[in-house]
DNA sequence: AGCCCGACTTGGGTCGAGGACA
DNA sequence: TGTCCTCGACCCAAGTCGGGCT
């Protein structure tokens, strides 16, 4: 079949990256990527004979940059898509049903530990699954796996409830649409109305609250016995500062004329239950906002005279500015990156700029610089700090608390809210991630004159530090930040914003999950459509279809274009290059395998071998035809185009929603599969962590194995061995006791048997608990659970699971997480399904 | 329409407080 | 009581995405 070359595109050689200023199209340098991507200006390209930029560093970039952590083959062994390749002529979904079972299996032969996550049975037709590759012991890979499996409608009451929720949501959405009484086209255009559709305020919110109230009685009854001890425990654990701050908050709010439920004494009740309020925000983020401004790091403290910088064997007293920058380097001496030439070069250039003319003349080579005296001095200072007495540490802590109390909170609409980062970033050396071209550059000290303050007009404007003034004071209620400045290394804006526990953040989070839940209702249609796109005559549409398939199936990030030379060379879906995938007609007994190997966000390696449907496979071949390795795989599309398309399928839908949707769906499904009521608490927790882990694997959330990992594993093994020994002894004693009882048959011997039995049972339980803990830790070695828990998993799923299986919420969410998800903890009933 | 930039979310690393344990 | 280890708070880089300007 001949494909239509959309709008005369010359194909193949467009790069997906933004050009740096020096490469602007005007001076005859490569055509702007975006133009090419959209196929609009490609003719110009061809006519003008403009040569496309090549990426010289591509091959190099394939190499994992954080080797100790991402050598997938050593650490992870997961996630394979077991998609049964469907004949491309077979009718597309839903007729095309992959029927392969999906399993997440992780094994570690060395420790003899084997984890098997149960067959995944997602609500939707998509499945994320993982298969063991035990034959391949020497090369375990970090592969995310997911599988499509078109299932019949989920059964049972859950589905019923699900539908009720969905219908309800849909109804609310419809109502909103009707209320806005605008034509569809207008709605599409109007961002406001589409946003409203998903804002969990207004009707949806009210309904949630109604539902909550309905269940309140039951809830109270159920939780009363648990709740008391928890809140008591909480009170006990809460640092005094917190109690104080709550008191102050109450006072502040009262002073602002707001009604706090003043008669309540429980500190929980002091918290602002914004989710119970019905506020129409019409684009406004706040009505009143008052704060103290950011807190600045201390002035530079000059080194004592006995600590010197040595150049070429000669001690030199540096000027204050040059000395300060030198200390940044000295403090980093033991880090690997000070050995990198890019780092050294950037540092040296920036450092020289801080030097006096005289110093510049004198100091010409970094290799002749000796920072070791300075480094030693800082090491000693650290030791000194460590060795401080309890009292000294207490003083420091109190000072810190005082600062937090003073600068760490703001007053938003009369409520005291915690600020996320109230400190201005201190000066230092920039350390990007991966092979960042700007690593080592000087991050300059931020002065009040650099800072824009945002607060309400009638509030008390924060005072700039003595002798200084703010760059600007503004009163923009459409944004959520309190202060901002431009950072000098990349020219990015930096913000002071609220803590995740705040209303502004919480509401947005809630909204995010509502959009993801809405996607659940549409995803089948969207999948059907993108599968149809695979057969489209137009190349652009085909690329869109395949890219969406990857985003959906593999939870890839969208992949915005980046400025070449400005950041590390990392990619996402749309910016994948030919060199990032390898096609295998057959691999490991599977047909049509696509091998992904690229550096994603934060230069974390993504490696995955994925069997795909034959039509996808053939399309990929087509996209790669006549291209060089460094050319874009999807050269006709970009994230803007993709998101515009998605937004047409469902207002509010963007590429990243798929990640949230698939993550939460996976969690829900895994929890349903892995938990049973008769499990012990530890078993339930292991199940939860395994479900969480399946999501982390899907999203490729990796971490470096903790430095103390091997040691702590050994400790646990020792403990287990010890416990086993104790158990063996106890069993022997029980046997003896039974023997004796058989002989004597007295009350005393009977009691002894009972006692010994109890001891054996207790030890068995303890042993099992230890073993479970160890399994959990082992499985978590290189997987970061936190990211998905904080950003991708609808907390209501976890809360409902806790309620359903009587797991204390503290077991899965720590204090910070409970604060962030307070809305979900408060409103969710045990029958909630994502 | 295309591009740039502002606003906000997502992300892993670091480090020290404090709990566990000898 | 001292030491070790874990985990949470914090840090700040690096993404996504939308809006507004040209």
Automatic annotation (TrEMBL):
Pfam families given in the database record: Topo_C_assoc, Topoisom_I, Topoisom_I_N
Subcellular location field: Nucleus
Gene Ontology biological process terms from the UniProt entry: chromosome segregation; DNA replication; DNA topological change
CDD domains linked: Topo_IB_C (cd00659), Topoisomer_IB_N_htopoI_like (cd03488)
UniProt-listed Enzyme Commission number(s): 5.6.2.1
Reactions performed catalytically: ATP-independent breakage of single-stranded DNA, followed by passage and rejoining
InterPro entries in UniProt: DNA_brk_join_enz, DNA_topo_DNA_db_N_dom1, DNA_topo_DNA_db_N_dom2, TopoI, TopoI_C_dom, TopoI_cat_a-hlx-sub_euk, TopoI_cat_a/b-sub_euk, TopoI_cat_euk
DNA topoisomerase I eukaryotic-type domain residues: 429-806
GO molecular function: DNA binding; DNA topoisomerase type I (single strand cut, ATP-independent) activity
Record function comment: Releases the supercoiling and torsional tension of DNA introduced during the DNA replication and transcription by transiently cleaving and rejoining one strand of the DNA duplex. Introduces a single-strand break via transesterification at the specific target site 5'-[CT]CCTTp site in duplex DNA. The scissile phosphodiester is attacked by the catalytic tyrosine of the enzyme, resulting in the formation of a DNA-(3'-phosphotyrosyl)-enzyme intermediate and the expulsion of a 5'-OH DNA strand. The free DNA strand then undergoes passage around the unbroken strand thus removing DNA supercoils.
Name this polypeptide is given: DNA topoisomerase I
Gene name for this UniProt entry: TOP1MT
């Amino acid at each position: 079949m001949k494909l239509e070359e959309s709008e005369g595109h010359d194909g193949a050689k467009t790069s997906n990256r933004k050009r740096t200023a020096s490469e602007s199209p005007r001076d005859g340098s490569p055509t702007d990527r975006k133009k090419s991507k959209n196929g609009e200006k490609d003719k110009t390209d061809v006519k003008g004979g403009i040569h496309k930029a090549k990426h010289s560093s591509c091959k190099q970039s394939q190499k994992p940059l954080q080797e100790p952590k991402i050598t997938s083959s050593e650490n992870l062994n997961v996630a394979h898509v077991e998609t049964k390749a469907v004949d491309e002529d077979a009718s597309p979904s839903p007729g095309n049903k992959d029927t392969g079972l999906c399993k997440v299996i992780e094994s570690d032969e060395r420790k003899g530990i084997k984890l098997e996550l149960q067959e995944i049975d997602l609500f939707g037709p998509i499945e994320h699954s993982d298969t063991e590759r035990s034959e391949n012991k020497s090369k375990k890979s970090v592969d995310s796996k997911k599988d499509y499996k078109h299932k019949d409608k989920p059964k049972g009451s859950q589905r019923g409830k699900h539908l009720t929720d969905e219908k309800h949501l849909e109804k609310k959405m419809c109502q909103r649409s009707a209320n806005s009484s605008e034509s569809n086209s207008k709605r599409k255009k109007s961002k406001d109305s589409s946003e409203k559709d998903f804002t969990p305020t207004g009707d949806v919110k009210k309904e949630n609250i109604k539902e909550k109230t309905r269940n309140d009685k039951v809830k109270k009854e159920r939780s009363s016995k648990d709740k008391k001890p928890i809140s008591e425990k909480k009170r006990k654990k809460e640092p005094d500062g917190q109690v104080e701050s709550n008191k102050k908050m109450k006072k502040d709010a009262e002073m602002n004329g707001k009604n706090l439920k003043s008669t309540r004494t429980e500190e929980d009740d002091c918290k602002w239950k914004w989710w119970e309020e019905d506020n129409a925000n019409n684009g406004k983020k706040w009505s009143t906002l008052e704060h103290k401004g950011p807190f600045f790091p201390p002035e530079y403290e000059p080194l004592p005279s006995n600590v010197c910088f040595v150049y070429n064997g000669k001690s030199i007293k540096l000027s204050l500015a040059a000395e300060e920058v030198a200390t940044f380097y000295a403090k980093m001496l033991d880090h690997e990156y000070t050995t990198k030439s890019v780092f050294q070069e950037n540092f040296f250039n920036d450092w020289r700029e801080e030097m006096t003319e005289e110093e510049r003349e004198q100091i010409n080579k970094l290799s002749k610089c000796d920072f070791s005296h300075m480094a030693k001095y800082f090491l000693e200072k650290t030791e000194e700090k460590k060795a401080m007495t309890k009292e000294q540490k207490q003083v420091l802590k109190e000072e810190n608390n005082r600062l937090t109390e003073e600068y760490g909170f703001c007053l938003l609409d009369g409520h005291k809210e915690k600020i996320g980062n109230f400190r201005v970033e201190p000066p230092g050396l920039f350390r990007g991630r991966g092979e960042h071209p700007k690593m080592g550059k000087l991050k300059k000290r931020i002065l009040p004159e650099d800072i824009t303050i945002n607060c309400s007009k009638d509030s008390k404007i924060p005072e700039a530090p003595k002798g200084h003034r703010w760059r600007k004071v503004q009163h923009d209620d459409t944004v959520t930040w309190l202060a901002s400045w431009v950072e000098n290394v990349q020219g990015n804006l930096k913000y002071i914003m609220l803590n995740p526990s705040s209303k502004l953040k919480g509401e947005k989070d809630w909204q995010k999950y509502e959009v993801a839940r809405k996607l659940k209702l549409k995803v089948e249609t969207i999948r059907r459509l993108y599968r149809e796109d695979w057969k489209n005559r137009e190349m652009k549409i085909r690329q869109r279809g395949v890219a969406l398939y990857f985003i959906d199936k593999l939870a890839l990030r969208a992949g915005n274009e980046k400025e070449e030379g400005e950041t590390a060379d990392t990619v996402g879906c749309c910016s994948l290059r030919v060199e990032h995938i390898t096609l295998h007609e057959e691999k490991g007994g599977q047909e049509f395998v696509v091998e992904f190997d690229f550096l994603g966000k934060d230069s974390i390696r993504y490696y995955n071998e994925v069997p795909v449907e034959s039509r996808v496979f053939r399309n990929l071949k087509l996209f790669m035809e006549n291209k060089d390795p460094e050319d874009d795989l999807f050269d006709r599309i970009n994230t803007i185009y993709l998101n515009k398309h998605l937004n047409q399928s469902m207002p509010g839908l963007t590429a990243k929603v798929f990640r949230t949707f698939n993550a939460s769906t996976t969690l829900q499904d895994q929890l349903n599969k892995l938990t049973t009521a008769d499990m012990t608490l530890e078993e339930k927790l292991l199940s939860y962590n395994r479900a969480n882990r399946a999501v982390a694997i899907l999203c490729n959330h990796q971490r470096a194995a903790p430095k103390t990992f091997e040691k702590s594993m050994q400790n646990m093994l020792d403990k287990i061995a010890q416990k086993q020994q104790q158990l063996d002894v106890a069993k022997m004693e029980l046997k003896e006791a039974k023997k004796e009882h058989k002989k004597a048959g007295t009350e005393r011997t009977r009691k002894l048997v009972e006692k010994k039995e109890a001891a054996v049972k207790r030890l068995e339980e303890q042993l099992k608990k230890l073993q479970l803990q160890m399994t959990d830790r082992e499985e978590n070695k290189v997987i970061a659970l936190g990211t998905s828990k904080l950003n991708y998993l609808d907390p209501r799923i976890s809360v409902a699971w806790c309620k359903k299986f009587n797991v204390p919420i503290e077991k899965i969410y720590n204090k910070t997480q409970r604060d962030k998800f307070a809305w979900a903890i408060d409103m969710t009933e045990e029958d909630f399904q994502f």
